[in-house]
Amino acid sequence: MDIPLSILDIHLLSIWSSAGPLLLVLLLLLCSALISGSEVALFSLNPSQRAELKESKDRGSKAILELLEEPDKETGPKRLLATILITNNAINIAIVLVATEIAAMWFPSEQYPDWVKTLIDVVAITFILVLFGEVIPKVYATGNNMRNARFMAVPLIWIQKIFSPLTFILMKTSGFLEGKLKNRASSHITVDDLGHALELTQSDNLSDEENKILEGIVTFGAKEVGQVMTPRTDIAYLWEDDAFEEVMTKILDKGYSRWPVFKNSPDEIAGFVFVKDLLPHIESQTFHWQSIIKQPFFVPENKKIDDLLQEFQKQKIHLAIVVDEYGGTQGLITLEDILEEIVGNINDEFDDEELHYSKLDESTYIFEGKILLVDVSKILDLDREFFEAAKGDSTTLAGFLLEQSGRILEKGDEIKYNGVSFSVEAADIRKIKRVKVKLS
After folding, report:
1. Distance from CA of residue 234 to its chain's centroid?
2. How far apart are CA 77 and CA 314, in angstroms?
3. How far is it, in rounded angstroms, from Cα 141 to Cα 11?
4. Angstrom distance (rounded) from CA 256 to CA 244
5. How many CB atoms lie within 10 A of CB 116?
6. Is this prediction's pTM over 0.85?
C-alpha cells in the first residue's frame, strides 16, 4: 500500500537530491569571494608594498608584478581588471542558475504561490551572492591586501590565459568606447574637484604639515599675486636721494637682502638694490650707490602665482613690484612668498616672527587688520570658500570689513558674517588695526 508523503518528507527528499548542486553553489561562492577579494587586494597595493614585492623572490610576489606590469604598466592593470570582471561575472551567473534550480526543487511551484518563488529567486539569492561573494571578501581584502594578492596571483595568471580571447575583445571594445567618449567629454579638472579629492583621500598616516603641503599644492594654481604679496604699507624701501650712510643704517636695521628704491613717491619705482652689490663698498662713505640700482620688474595683482613662479625661474629674479590697473604700486612679492604658499612660513635668522593674531579662548581671537584672509581661514579652520562670496577685491581682513561696511569702521563697530562676529578693537582715520573675531 502506498503511503502518502508529507510536505516535510518532500522537502527532505528534495534537499537530499539537491546535495550535489548545493555543494556546487558553495564552491562557486568561494570562487566568487576569492576573485572579488583579489580585485581589491591587487589594486590597493601602495608604492611601498610594490617596492617590497620587487625585493622579494617568492613566486607569489613575482606573479603579482607580472599581473600588474605585463605587458606594460598601463596595459597590465587593464588586462587584469578585464580578466577579473569576466571571471567574476561568469561565476555569479553560474551561481544564479544553479541556485534557481535548487530553489525550484525545494519550493515546487505547484505547492507555493508565485510571489514566494520570486522572493527567493530575486531577494534571497541576490542577498547571499552580494554578502558572501562581494562585501565580506572585499572588506577582508582591504585589511589583508598583501596576503590575499599573493594567494590569488598565480591562479589569476592561469585564468588570464584561459580567458585571453574574451579579455582581448573586452579591452578593444572598451578602448574604442573610451576614445569616443573622451572626444565628447570635457577633460578639465577644477581646483574644487582637486580639493574635494584631497579631502576624500587624506591619510591618517600623514602629519598635519604634510597634509597642509598637499593642500597648498592643490590650491597653488588658483591663487593670485594680490593674495600673497606684502602690501604697500608694509614694504621696507629706500629713497633714491638717500645718503649712502642712511642706506646702510636701514639695511642693518631690517636685515633684508633686496630693497625696492622709490623716487618721489611709492608709485615711482627707480628699481631694486641688492645688498651683495653694496658689500665691496661698505667702508666707503661717499659711494654713489644709485649706480648699482637694477631695473624693476612689474606684475599685475591678478596674475596667477604659478605663472609668476615660472617667470621668476626664467628671468632668474627673486622679487617684483605689484601694480594695479592704473600702474600704482600695490605691494611687493618675492620668491619666498610664493614658496610659502606650498611649504608654509619660511623663517631665517633675520626674520621677525610677527604674530598677526592671538587666541583668547576656543572661540575668540584677536587679529591684526593686515592679516590675509587665507591665513584667517587656516587659523580658524574655516572652509576655503568662507570669504569668497563677499570679499570682492579685498585680500586682508581689514579690506574685507571695509568691503562689508562700505566705510572705515571705528573702534567698537561690529559686523556679523556667516555666524562669525567681527569687532574692531583698534583703528584710526585711515585703517583698521586690530579686530576681535568670535566664532558662534
Report:
1. 33
2. 39
3. 38
4. 16
5. 13
6. no
Phi-psi category of residue 276: left, alpha or beta, with phi > 0 → left and psi -120 to 50 → alpha: alpha
pLDDT digits (tens, 9 = 90+) for 44-83: 887 777 778 888 878 878 888 877 776 555 566 778 888 8
Shared domain for 233 and 293, answered yes or no, is: yes
pLDDT in tens, 240-265: 998 888 888 888 888 788 889 998 88
What is the C-alpha separation between 325 and 301, in angstroms, rounded?
8
- Determine how many CB atoms are found less than 10 A away from the CB of residue 95: 23
Give me the number of domains the chain comprises.
4
Which residue bears the cell 574604442?
Answer: 176
Q: Is the peptide bond before 71 cis (omega within 30 degrees of 0)?
A: yes
Contacts of 22 (CB under 8 A, 6+ apart): 15, 102
Report the distance separating Cα 48 and Cα 59, nearest Å: 19
Amino acid sitting at position 393: D
Q: Does the residue 268 lie in any domain? A: yes
Residue 352, domain member (yes or no): no
**124 DSSP 8-state letter:** I
Distance in angstroms (rounded) separating the CA atoms of residues 272 and 249: 17
Please give the torsion angle defined by the CA atoms of residues 206, 222, 257 and 297, in that order, rounded to the nearest 10 degrees: 160
Q: What is the length of the chain?
A: 440
- Same domain? 262 vs 216: no
Tell me how far apart the alpha carbons of residues 247 and 184 are, in angstroms, rounded to a whole number: 62
Q: Which domain holds residue 242?
A: 225-343
pLDDT, tens digit (0-9, with 9 covering 90-100), for 291-327: 889 998 999 988 888 888 888 888 888 889 999 888 8
Q: Say if residues 423 and 410 touch (Cβ distance below 8 Å).
A: no
3 state SS of 288: coil
The order of strands in the sheet holding 269-274 is 238-239, 258-262, 269-274
Residues 427 and 382 in one domain: yes
**For residue 324, which phi and psi values (nearest 5 degrees)?**
-90, -170
* Alpha-helical runs (H) found in 107-190: 114-118, 125-130, 136-143, 145-162, 164-184
How far, in Å, CA of 42 to CA of 56, rounded? 16
Alpha-carbon gap, residue 322 to 301, rounded angstroms: 6
